[in-house]
Design goal:
By secondary structure, this protein is α+β, with helices and mostly antiparallel strands. Helix content is 24%, strand content 21%.
Length: 356
């Protein structure tokens, strides 16, 4: 199913080159009037900006609110938002040769060839567009509870930006369209993108996201732990292949005496290797999570594949418009995913709290 959440639920629908894509969200509070200009700004962050790393597909990304709003405020009914696809070049995908490492192979097998392969269909990165819209509304609702979420490029092709301070009280200045803790790294990254555009190759990357002001107590054992919820939706973002919290995989190289976060008298911790979560429940410290993206599998180099009609080996020489790297614009999708999971967990926590 294309649905995520418990007290707050979102459903995505549509395909990359179909007439439209969209989402339905259930659980937004009746009477809340979202700042739609702020939502449009988040969509611009996600859109390609003509850099050498991004696709040349140009969509307006204008949204239509089909239901759930009246006179600028939520009605309490499910919110349905639509995005029309206007710049699809479907002829680029009318081929019989499967694209290596795309969902072409698995979708063809699962749906017996009935799937829409154009632009990846339902598996396309374009499906993050409605996700970012819903995340933008969640950002406004979280802000009312003094919760802030931001992300930055952690690394691209081995070019490192450095991690957030896990004990930080506020975010460092970040360019919303090319977020780096050390903005001087941008020239090196841009040079890499230019070389990739020339060679036809792509590169992997990772983003780090943090949430400040999250109260202690969010998350439910066992299967709705906060880490589980955030990881669940992050892995739905196309291209994400690894997620880790706090010290993450570094824990495997640490002693317990190095890894443990000492507890202070005010119930804060003196370190934050846990990334703000213990036992699947937020502990009140900053939540830090990292998501690693695989290199975009659409590369302009000869690749071995198979013709799905003849069953014979074939060589794929890609055409069309594709990203060279999922970041920096993928940061908006990472933030949206984290904010949606946090808002759902917050609603669950508030329901629990009201019953005490």
């Amino acid at each position: 199913m294309n649905t995520f959440g418990n007290n707050f639920r979102i459903t995505l629908f549509g395909e990359s080159h179909g007439k439209l894509i969209g989402c339905t969200a259930e659980g937004f509070p009746a009477g809340f009037a979202p700042e739609l200009e702020a939502c449009a700004f988040e969509l611009k962050r996600r859109a390609p900006h003509g850099g050498s790393e991004s696709t040349q597909r140009r969509e307006s990304d204008e949204f239509e609110i089909a239901s759930g709003m009246y006179k600028g405020a939520f009605t309490g009914a499910p919110l349905t938002v639509l995005f029309r696809n206007r710049d699809a070049q479907s002829g680029d995908y009318a081929r019989r040769v499967l694209r290596p490492s795309h969902a072409d192979l698995t979708a063809h097998i699962k749906y017996r060839g009935a799937n829409d392969p154009r632009g990846g269909g339902m598996f396309s990165g374009r499906m993050t567009l409605p996700l970012v819209f819903i995340g933008a509304v969640c950002r406004q609702l979280l802000k009312r509870r003094n919760i802030a979420v931001a992300s930055h490029i952690l690394n691209i092709g081995g070019i490192e930006d450095g991690r957030f301070d896990p004990m930080m009280k506020a975010f460092p200045p970040l360019d919303p369209f090319f977020p780096l803790i050390h903005p001087e790294k941008r020239d090196e990254i841009e040079a890499l993108f230019a070389s990739l555009r020339e060679s036809g190759n792509s590169v992997g990357a990772s983003a780090e996201c943090a949430a400040l002001g999250v109260p202690a107590g969010l998350g439910e054992p066992f299967f709705n732990g906060l880490e589980s919820m955030i990881a669940h939706i992050l892995f739905a973002v196309p291209g994400v292949h690894a997620v880790e919290f706090g010290a993450g995989s570094d824990f495997s190289r640490m002693l317990g005496s190095e890894a443990n976060d000492p507890v202070n008298g005010d119930l804060t911790t003196g370190a934050n290797n846990s990334g703000g979560i213990n036992g699947g429940i937020s502990n009140g410290m900053p939540i830090t999570v990292r998501a690693a993206f695989r290199p975009v599998p659409s590369i302009y180099m000869p690749q071995k594949s198979v013709d799905i009609e003849s069953g014979e080996a074939a060589e794929l020489n890609l055409t069309g418009r594709h990203d060279r790297c999922i970041l920096p614009r993928g940061c908006s999708a990472v933030e949206a995913a984290v904010m949606i999971a946090l808002y759902d967990a917050l609603l669950s926590f508030e329901v629990y709290d009201e019953r005490q």
